[in-house]
Automatic annotation (TrEMBL):
UniProt lineage: Bacteria, Pseudomonadati, Pseudomonadota, Betaproteobacteria, Nitrosomonadales
Family per record: Belongs to the PhoH family.
Protein name as catalogued: PhoH family protein
Organism: Gallionella capsiferriformans (strain ES-2)
Domain of life: Bacteria
Keywords: ATP-binding, Nucleotide-binding
GO cellular component terms, A-Z: cytosol
Alphabetical list of InterPro entries matching this protein: P-loop_NTPase, PhoH, PhoH2-like, PIN-like_dom_sf, PIN_dom
One MF annotation (Gene Ontology) recorded for this entry: ATP binding
Length: 468
């Protein structure tokens, strides 16, 4: 049965601010049956932003291309709106309205004339008067713009379509604690066997349908149980016990796991079948140290990867210190203090080497680690590399896609960050590229995720993280 089109009075009219289009160029097609309006000031601001090689300039040019395609197919009289529906965007049944005439609507006297934000608010007020029975809503990523709109009695919203989750507490953690009666409810027809030093359990029961592939399950009691889910469907699941990296016998470049989650992380990082790992956690949980230790082990000892490539978003915490001299590697060095700090820790573990031995080891390690800038990643393909993307909470979903698709055969990508420390404007915990990939990759057989909970840096750092 075909879906009946809603009456015009039931659909809303959304007025888009420039920052929404610059944030997500496809937002033009994201409002389904509702209509959208672009004020003339928005088109002028897009024109001003299109020059340059930044992500904002690229998005501005993409929006212009989309608008060109839409307007080219439009009838001569565009006052009645232009249909947004195409073969690629079948859900966009609304229409696009461009401001073709000056809206003679007086703004309150305390709003400065000629300012783009105020001109857009004037358009919203004018449209509300023209369509008194219709819901006219301003959509903006600018909090102050939304506050001004509400102060004028206008309806205003944030742009929600890019949000993966409304509440980041619902984000997949990669870990599940098993209930106390787990073996009673899931162990009746259980099969188990030992292979390559690991015990495998074929279980069946009600919890199996809620598990994800490469999710870690654990049970803390008299006989602690830690395992990873290898296969699952609605009724059955296959679990495999883990390598215990809390033991010095299984140390990784001199590092041992200090807690349960760190043990899970090392099991993911050292599994050659896992190509993509995401690590979430606050400062001091050991994300960088564990990732580097696992990378050095697989690059210098087992020779699984040819080199380690580290990159991160260069967003300063304070004032920007300006342009830096030197090569790409030298320019990135000030941003990589965390790398040097962790290498100091990894290099101290060999007490017998002496000063000369430690210096030689450090030179060998640095020769295998390349620091790259995000700006030069487009078009590259990395073969047999161990790629670390640090501070990835500051990446947009589109930037994250650009980076992860650089991976060639035999390459492992590790993304880590803390979504509580986002420094990029217009990104929130729900719309960060890190949140996006954690949600999209869960359950993939060659990907894994862990949220680290316990800080292991120092008692001072742990206490500061709790009370400040």
């Amino acid at each position: 049965m075909p879906k009946l089109k809603k009456a015009v009075s039931d659909t809303k009219l959304f007025v888009l601010d420039t920052n929404v289009l610059l944030h997500d160029p496809t937002s033009l097609y994201r409002f389904e049956e509702h209509d959208i309006c672009l004020p003339m000031f928005v088109l002028e601001e897009l024109d001003n932003k299109k020059k340059g090689m930044t992500e904002v300039a690229r998005n501005a040019r993409q929006v212009s291309r989309f608008l060109d395609e839409i307007v080219n197919d439009a009838p001569r009289n565009i006052d009645e709106g232009i249909a947004l529906q195409t073969d690629m965007h079948k859900n966009s049944t609304g229409r696009l309205f461009l401001q073709t005439s000056f809206i003679r609507q007086e703004l309150p006297h305390n709003l400065e004339l000629g300012k783009a934000d105020n001109a857009i608010l004037g358009v919203v007020i004018g449209l509300q008067h023209q369509h008194p029975t219709r819901s006219v809503i301003l959509v903006s990523k600018d909090i102050n713009m939304r506050i001004k709109a509400r102060a004028l009695g206008l309806e205003a919203q944030d742009y929600f379509n890019d949000k993966v989750l409304e509440d980041t507490d619902l984000l997949y953690s990669g870990v599940l604690e098993l209930p106390g009666d787990f073996w009673d409810t899931h162990g009746r027809d259980m099969k188990s066997w030992i292979k390559d030093g690991h015990t495998y359990y074929q279980i069946s029961g009600p919890l199996c349908g809620a598990l994800f592939i490469n999710q870690f399950v654990y049970k803390e009691d008299d006989a602690p149980f830690y395992a990873i889910v290898l296969e699952q469907n609605e009724n059955t699941a296959l679990l495999r016990t883990l390598t215990d990296y809390t033991s010095t016998k299984h140390n990784v470049w001199g590092i041992v796991a200090r807690n349960r989650e760190q043990n899970f992380v090392l099991n993911l990082l050292l599994d050659p079948e896992i190509d993509f790992v995401t690590l979430l956690g606050q400062a001091g949980t050991g994300k960088t140290l564990l990732t580097l230790a696992a990378g050095l082990m697989q690059t210098l000892e087992t020779k699984l990867y040819s080199e380690i490539i580290i990159t991160r978003v260069t967003v300063p915490v304070g004032e920007d210190i300006g342009f830096l001299p030197g090569t790409e590697e030298e320019k990135m060095t000030p941003w990589m203090g965390a790398l040097d700090d962790n290498l100091d820790v990894l290099n101290k573990n060999d007490e017998e080497a002496g000063d000369w031995g430690k210096a030689a080891t450090r030179d060998l390690i640095r020769s295998r680690i390349k620091v790259k800038s995000l700006n030069f990643m487009r078009g590259r393909t990395f073969l047999n590399k161990y790629i670390i993307i640090d501070e990835s909470q500051n990446l947009t979903p589109k930037q994250m896609k650009t980076l992860i698709t650089r991976a060639g055969p035999g390459t492992k990508v590790v993304c880590m960050g803390n979504i509580a420390q986002i420094d990029t404007p217009y990104l929130s915990e729900g719309s960060s590229g890190l949140t996006y990939v954690v949600d999209r990759f869960k359950g993939w057989e060659h990907g894994g995720h862990i949220t680290l909970l316990r800080g292991e840096r120092s008692r001072l750092a742990d206490h500061a993280g709790e009370v400040l």
